[in-house]
Every structure is written in C-alpha cells, then in structure tokens.
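Sharing a chain and its predicted structure for anyone who wants a worked example. Both blocks are below, sequence first, tokens second.
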Amino acid sequence: GMTPPETYAQMWTAITSGKRWEGELTNKRKNGSLYLEKILISPILDDSGNIVNYVAIKEDITERKMKEGLLLLYERQARMGEMLSVIAHQWRQPLSAISASINRLELESIIGTLEIGALFETFKKIKYQIQHLSQTIDDFRSFLKPDKTKSRFDIGNIIQKGLRIMADHYEGKGIRIEQKSTQDIQVESYADELVQVFLCVLENSKDAFESRKTDSPVISIDIYRENSYAAIEIADNAGGIAPDAIDNIFLPYFTTKKELKGTGLGLYMAKMIVEEHCDGKIIASNKTHGASFIIKIPNSDD
C-alpha cells in the first residue's frame, strides 16, 4: 500500500514485454519493518526468446532517502525564513497605502468634501491591495506544503508564482526582471518543489548582484520547448560563476558566499529536486555577462 499501483503496473508491463525496469519501491522485511529499495529487474530469456525468469539487483536506500528528506526540509526552512522576511517587507507598503486611503476618506467625510466617485475609486484601490496581500499568503501557504503527487500545470504559471513572492523585493533593490517568453507549456511534475528551485536560482543571482555591486542588474527568464522538455532559462548579468567553482556548485555544502550567508545546500537540493523528483535536468554555465541556469522538465503536451 505504500507504492502507487501504477508503479507496479509500469513494472509488469515493462518486464513481461522483455524490457528491463528500474525504479524505487517500498518493501517489507521478514520482521515486518518497511524499507525503501532501488531495484533493477531484467527478464531472463531462453533460446527461443521466451521469458523463463527474472533477475533483480536491489539496494536499500532508506538511510539515503531519510538524509535527503532532512536536507530538503532544512533547505526549505531556510528558504521559508527568507520568504517571511520578504513578505513582511512587501506587506508594509500595501498596508500603509490602505491606512492612508482610509485616513483620507475619514478626513474628507468629516470636513464634508467626500465625493461619491472618489469614494468608489478608493474602494477599488483598497480591494486591489487586499487581493495582493491575500495572493501573497496563498502562494506562501502552498510553498509550505510539500507536493505528495505530481500534477499537470503550465510551467509559466509556476514561474509567476515564484515572482509574485519575490518580484517586489527585487524591484526594491533595483533588480529588473525580464520575461522573454510566456509560452503555454504543460508539464506533469511537482509544482511547489519547482517553485523552490526557481527561488533558489533567483536568490543566487540577487546575492551575486549585491556582493559584486552590479550596475543595472537584470535577471532574464525564458521558457521554450526543447525536444521532449520544457526548458526554463534563468540568466543574469552579475559576471558569472568563477571557473574554479562552476564544477562544484551542485555539491552539498559547497558555497561561494563564505561566512556572509548561504547553507551550501540550495543548488544541491535544486539539482536533487529537478533530477530525482522531477526526472529533469539542471545545467549551469557562464554567458557573456553572467551566469545561466537551464532547468529542463519533461513536458506533457499531446
């Protein structure tokens, strides 16, 4: 009951048709305890090509999965702390605007200069600010809940979700976000885990801008199809990744931020989420003016 029925269906479909199957299952020991195993099953054929048996190579990955889960939780909590700080900062301006609008309406009502047209226009502005605050909370709440199952969604909408959380913060620091494409590309994956990946890459760019005091900082985001993948490229003009660091940036606890900040887990967890959870790829490289991260997720377009 711990492994989805479709996993077993895929396994049997593969091996009974003479193909090998590789995946992860929850299994049970003789003492009744459960464990996670990585398993490779291959059919054994006789001289006539008939399947006579199966051979399996298994690895107990319980401890590794537990460590990965703890690391994911640790990195998620660190990202949550950053987001809470950003949200608190973002809320100040809308709350101040709402307070100022109410004070103005109260004053105009007292002195008798309140006009019905101005009243409804102010209500409209207040309603917009409240909707913005509510959307921020919804985005943050969904980020708190790790995905249990894959869902089908437009990858562009997920990028917008991340930007709604952070864009005002970046704008306050003079960082411009350029979105080159808004293609509707459907994927079937883990939405909120991908938001965490995007936020990690965006935050790395922001930190690079700040440490290098980049003039006119720009982050560009492009979405496009590449064969069977939805590709998302996030690039900046912060000068790029040091040549002696670029081969190590996805290693756990490796950081170029030294004692200033950074857990050294962000990009490691991003790679694990993309490659192990989402069956995708993440590639880092240097371009003319800065770093580029390309995230590829299998698309589900018909």
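Comments welcome. The mean pLDDT is 81.
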